[in-house]
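User: Sequence in, structure out. Go.
Assistant: Echoing your sequence, followed by the structure tokens.
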Amino acid sequence: MTGAKSILFPLLAALCWAAFFYKCRGMRRERRDPALLALLAAFAFKGTAFALATPKVAVAVDQKLGIPNLAALAVHLLGGVAFSASVLVALTFWAHAPEQAWPKARWRLIVAIVMILTMLSLWITAAAGSPVHSMHYLLQNVHHPVVAAYSLLYTGTVLVALVEIVRLCWRYAEVAGQPWLRRGLRIAAAGALVYSINFVNRASAVICVQFDLHPLEWEVLTVLGAGIGIPLIVGGLTMPSWGPRLSLLGTWWNNYRIYRSLAPLWIAMCQELPEIVLRSPTSTLSNLNYRLYRRVIEIRDSQIALRPYMNPEIAVRAAELGGEACLAGNELRAVIEAAQLKVALRAKMNGSPAPVKSSTSRDYPVFSELSGGGDLVSEAVWLSRVARAFAHSPVVAASVNDPVVAASVNDRRS
């Protein structure tokens, strides 16, 4: 597992430091926010711990300072106790008002300091009898009573903290008003649960060695627990910041798709009614909302201009063919509207007189009125449905090219 850790741990260190610098931007606006300060401390502690846990870095640090297993101690204190305590403090200030959060946060910090001092004392005692660097400090020295006590204190403290993180995240997620905060807390809770596998594995080593088992044989659990759990924790805790940007990106992409889907209908109308275009189309997608708004308005203006050319018999024929094709609801309405627009554009291009519904025509509704929604988004979505039918629907093509309807239109021309 040394090779896997040499790759994974630097990546996790980079992830934690990236989250640290990303959240540092909030210091300009929230310089005195204790939750933000605690979160920054958590990322800094964990990023430093993963850097020191990288095998080559740990060996180099111990050799440079001349103190065996000092890097392991720093990893446990910074990446275990200090990290979990900082996350708990941040969650405490997220979940409670400041006057309620401060007493809870102080107790968490006091417990963390006591655990750190106790672990430091046990480590110094153990170091006096084991002056040799260990690649896997806990697993290779757990048969020593002092190291076993150190290991149980360390893993027990972090496990309790992780369970509390899961509890707070899940509890607060149920009442969080912001969707991305709610999602982030649940993801962080899942990450803490997965990451706890590491410490269950470390705690079980104390018992396993008593039965001549070798915990290093399932050290892969440590790699999997950290490799999955830490990204979930870091991602969940930072999600309230970057999640809304993801929503905006999703909205932009959806608007872009709608904008592009309107192109066949809009281009056909611009060719016959160039006066509707406010400005020439360009390839730039800057200010997409405005461009989408203009495209919707221009299509609607064209529909109004084409009203005199709407043929009631096309609506009837499209309704019949759509029913035969098992279309209903908005799909059928879109097909009928698209068929009428296609024939109206053709009539306008040929200079045909406005058709008049004959007295012998069957009493079918005429779908020449504007359909759609009450705002830009619903209007654009509706018109994109009409545009797809205009360009691709076989029912529209059959309605427009129907010989009976064509003959009726030709009779009116003559």
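User: And one key feature?
Assistant: The CA atoms of residues 321 and 395 lie 6 Å apart.
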